[in-house]
Design goal:
It is a single chain. The protein has 73 residues and is mainly α. The protein folds into two domains: 2-33, no CATH class; 45-73. The chain has two helices and two strands. It has helices at residues 18-33, 51-72, and strands at 2-5, 12-15. It is rod-shaped.
């Protein structure tokens, strides 16, 4: 004996086999929560960062650059 338990809404449906439980899951998702979808998320750019993170990034880059110049020169 198996059960399908929806983690989103708490619905519990009994099933005789694992395959039947999977079918119940697919039908429940489509009927009550809408079909699943996979979307491509746009890549984050430097200009999308908050101002504080931009400043910190530039400061760290400058410290590294000065450290390299002091060590080699």
């Amino acid at each position: 004996m198996y059960e399908y338990r929806c983690k989103l809404c708490g619905t519990v449906e009994p099933a005789d086999t694992r395959a039947q439980a999977r079918a119940l899951r697919d039908a429940h998702r489509d009927d009550f929560h809408g079909p699943d979808e996979i979307v491509e998320v746009p890549r984050m750019r430097f200009v999308d960062l908050p101002r504080e993170q931009k400043i910190a990034t530039v400061v760290v880059a400058l410290v590294l650059l000065v450290g390299i110049l002091v060590k080699t020169g």
